[in-house]
Amino acid sequence: MSTAGKAASRHLSVSQVTSGYDRADVLKGVSIEVRPGAVTCILGANGAGKSTLIRTILGLNRVRSGTITFGDASLSGMPTHRIVALGIGVVPEGNRVLPRMTIEENLQVGGLLDPYPRRVADRMEAMFAVFPRLKERRAQLAGTLSGGERSMLSIARGLMTDPELVVFDEPSLGLSPLFVSEVFGIVRRLKETGLTILLVEQNVRQTLDVADHGYVLAQGRVVASGETRVLREDAELHKAYFGVHH
User: Fold this and answer.
1) Confidence (pTM)
2) 64 in the Ramachandran plot: left (φ > 0), alpha (ψ -120 to 50) or beta?
3) In sequence order, what are the residues at sequence separation of 6 or more whose Cβ sits closer than 8 angstroms to the Cβ of residue 174?
4) Is 242 or 53 the better-scoring residue by pLDDT?
5) Within 10 A of 239 (CB to CB), how many other CB atoms are there?
6) Which residues constitute the domain of residue 132?
7) Does the residue 3 lie in any domain?
8) In this structure, is residue 65 part of a structural domain?
9) Do the bridges between strand 88-91 and strand 165-169 make them parallel or antiparallel, or are there none, so unpaired?
10) Band of residue 246 on the pLDDT scale cut at 50, 70, 90
């Protein structure tokens, strides 16, 4: 699976970050490290602060204290489009697409930050090679696609920025079990290319199977972290934070 992505060489570092909405702090001193070429997962129940963490990394929420860096660049206070241009792509929650645009037009929107049309065209063909179902329907309106097809399009559009790191925000949300397995298969294949991935999910078992390192959020704090092979065996952690028995 070739995505023509950039060689992963930069750490994403979130250090003691506090962030939230209005006067309420949602994240309370959160620290995570996303290593180059690895899959790092953020797990937690609804309301744990996962989406706020992603929004803060992407510049959509202000960092109230702490630091966020990508390589040598500080992301604090940087607008979202510049963060994306640095090499951080995003696959948003809910498989969001532009419903009144075709598949091809959605992908073109994903490549708008690149000033070289030839490069955008080449990247689109690379996405069609990865997702042949999208190529077959390239002229179809995105709003008429199935849930699984919208998920593929959302992922492909996130990769159109040629990112070094991709943030997946709840990619399995609302999908049937068949398409959930397909999405995690795509994440595995992207991992094999050396792409750095930050995976935010509630699907505990499949996430721990594909990720290398994980963090568990609860009430805006990191309550556990480590290699996923260790987290996978922590039955009490599963019971306490996810309501499932290992």
Assistant:
1) 0.88
2) alpha
3) 94, 95, 147
4) 53
5) 12
6) 36-59+79-242
7) no
8) no
9) parallel
10) very low
